[in-house]
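Researcher: Quick test of sequence recovery. Tokens follow.
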């Protein structure tokens, strides 16, 4: 390529780079600003962490119940928990990802560990107590608190919509516990 053509090409490339530099800088600043402006408050971060762990524990324990439980009603309850908590987890995951939180929550290993080696009636009793009743009692309080005091509108709305379902789960768990005690 002749020297003048090379100089012309360089000049065009430099002009294009100069023309697009403000656009690229504005996009970078907007993206950085969006991440900063969407940072969750400590209350909302804690809610996402606690709700995620509670949901993961519920799902893992309920899947165990499908094969370890002897009582048909316990297995039916577990199946319902898998369906409902999977939907809830998806909703919370979408909100978490909007805020840059991509790590999936881990189940409570103490609860899952205490259930893994149990079978039949022994499993039923432990699952009803630790997951169905205690887990939902804690979840009701967690979601109530977020629905009242959360700062992120999407999380607050999700918690408010989920609360009646979780309260219903807690009532179902209490009925299951009464039946098992009789």
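Model:
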């Amino acid at each position: 390529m002749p020297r003048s053509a090379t100089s012309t090409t360089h000049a065009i490339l430099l002009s294009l780079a100069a023309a697009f530099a403000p656009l690229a800088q504005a996009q970078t600043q907007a993206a950085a600003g969006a991440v900063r402006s969407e940072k969750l408050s400590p209350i909302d971060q804690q809610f996402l962490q606690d709700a995620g762990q509670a949901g993961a524990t519920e799902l893992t324990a309920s899947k165990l119940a499908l094969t370890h439980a002897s009582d048909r009603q316990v297995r039916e309850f577990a199946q319902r928990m898998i369906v409902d908590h999977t939907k809830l987890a998806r909703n919370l995951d979408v909100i978490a990802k909007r805020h840059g939180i991509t790590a999936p929550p881990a189940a409570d290993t103490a609860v899952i560990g205490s259930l893994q080696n149990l079978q039949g009636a022994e499993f039923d009793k432990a699952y009803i107590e630790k997951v169905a009743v205690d887990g939902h009692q804690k979840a009701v309080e967690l979601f109530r608190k977020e629905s009242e005091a959360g700062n992120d509108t999407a999380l607050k709305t999700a918690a408010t919509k989920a609360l009646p379902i979780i309260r219903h789960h807690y009532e179902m768990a209490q009925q299951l516990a009464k039946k098992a005690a009789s």
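The helical segments are 3-37, 42-68, 72-98, 109-116, 120-149, 153-181.
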